[in-house]
Amino acid sequence: MKRIIILGVLALAALTAKADIPLWLRDVSISPDGKNIVFCYKGDLYKVSAKGGKAVRLTTLDSYECNPVWSPDGKEIAFASDRRGNFDVYVMAAEGGAARRLTFHSSAEIPSAFTPDGKYVLFSAAIQDPVESALFPKSVLTELYRVPAQGGRTEQVLGTPAEAVCYDPDGKRFFYQDCKGSESEWRKHHTSSITRDVWMYETATARHTNLTAREGEDRNPVLAPDGQTLYFLSERNGGSFNVYALPLGNPQAVRAVTRFHTHPVRFLSMSREGTLCYTYDGEIYVQPVQGKPEKLHIDLVRDDAPQLVTLKYSRGATSATVSPDGKQVAFVVRGEVFVTSVDYGTTRRSPILQQRKKG
């Protein structure tokens, strides 16, 4: 019996230890020099060493911050924030601090890249289709824009959806994932005519080239430092999302870089030194292109306020009783007693019951 109790205590301790590990880290992006990683967790941005360890919280507002993008010199981070109502593009120092707002439209604006010279931030938004566009004007079918990193006038780059943009260092071309319809980006094992493909856009000739023309999902391109190989996420070979490499000189010679099972790899990025960074099963991994995946241990501290829950019911109330003056009605929902006003429609949990529970 004593042995069973000890084993139970050890199992409980193990579960408690695992509960402290932050899971479902999102929008992971490794810095150009490969030394730091910025990510989104519970609507805030954090920065951590590419070797793991303690994460530093960069944003502290009640708003939701996401989609961080490093500037080429690694000194600034562009990101999306809904602190003014809808998502706009902001830029802040890589060490954190006050952010400057770059976009002001009422649609959601999501950044994906800096231009190689660091002067502009590219972002996607459904603002205005070109007059010659044949696309249905829908919010999911965005256009690609750029805005000066120091603030200024927004310019349209492409009138067609171009998401997750990745520039060639010389600025002569960039790579992106397209969007053909309203299918959820989180859907797994999707095969149809509207799945995403990876494209190359040549800035001098305005030429688009589909590099992964197939029914399955191909997305999130990142260019290797040598400019000859493109890495991206794909659901090829009947499996879940994994990292694949595509030689630009021979786009058909695609090879697998990771071989994870069960869960999809998400949020791919790459440093100038060739270190891949992504998430799997909610945790961050780094991997040299010729090496093996390494899961990072991330420590972070949060002081979350209790989440208030608002419940609405139009049926299911029982034991309704009218007050002697006829101005209030008491009733029971989900085992709790509530009192509602007949005149004003105000409903409150019974204070008497709350006091009894406290006692």
Provide the residue-averaged pLDDT: 89
Number of strands: 30
Largest sheet strand order: 1-2-3-5
Q: What's the shape? A: globular
User: Roughly how many Å apart are the termini?
Assistant: 36 Å
> What's the number of domains?
2
- Residues in helix, %: under 10%
Descriptive account of the structure:
The chain is mainly β and 359 residues long. The chain folds into 2 domains: 282 residues, Tricorn protease N-terminal domain (Neuraminidase, 6 Propeller), CATH 2.120.10; 41 residues, no CATH class. 7% of the residues lie in helices and 40% in strands. The chain contains 2 helices and 30 strands. The strands form 8 sheets. A 4-stranded antiparallel beta sheet has the order 1-2-3-5, with no helix packed on it. It has a 4-stranded antiparallel beta sheet with strand order 6-7-8-9, with no helix packed on it. A 4-stranded antiparallel beta sheet has the order 10-11-12-13, with no helix packed on it. Strand 20 and strand 21 form a beta hairpin. The longest helix is centred in the N-terminal third of the chain and has 18 residues. It starts with a helix and ends with a helix. The N terminus and C terminus are likely disordered.
Q: Mind sketching the topology for me?
A:
Blueprint: H1 2-19, E1 26-30, E2 36-41, E3 44-49, E4 53-54, E5 56-57, E6 65-70, E7 76-81, E8 88-93, E9 100-101, E10 110-114, E11 120-125, E12 143-148, E13 155-158, E14 163-167, E15 173-177, E16 198-202, E17 207-210, E18 218-223, E19 229-234, E20 242-247, E21 255-256, E22 265-270, E23 275-280, E24 283-288, E25 294-295, E26 298-299, E27 318-322, E28 328-333, E29 336-341, E30 347-349, H2 351-358
Parallel strand pairs: 4-26
Antiparallel strand pairs: 1-2, 2-3, 3-5, 6-7, 7-8, 8-9, 10-11, 11-12, 12-13, 14-15, 15-16, 16-17, 18-19, 19-20, 20-21, 22-23, 23-24, 24-25, 27-28, 28-29, 29-30
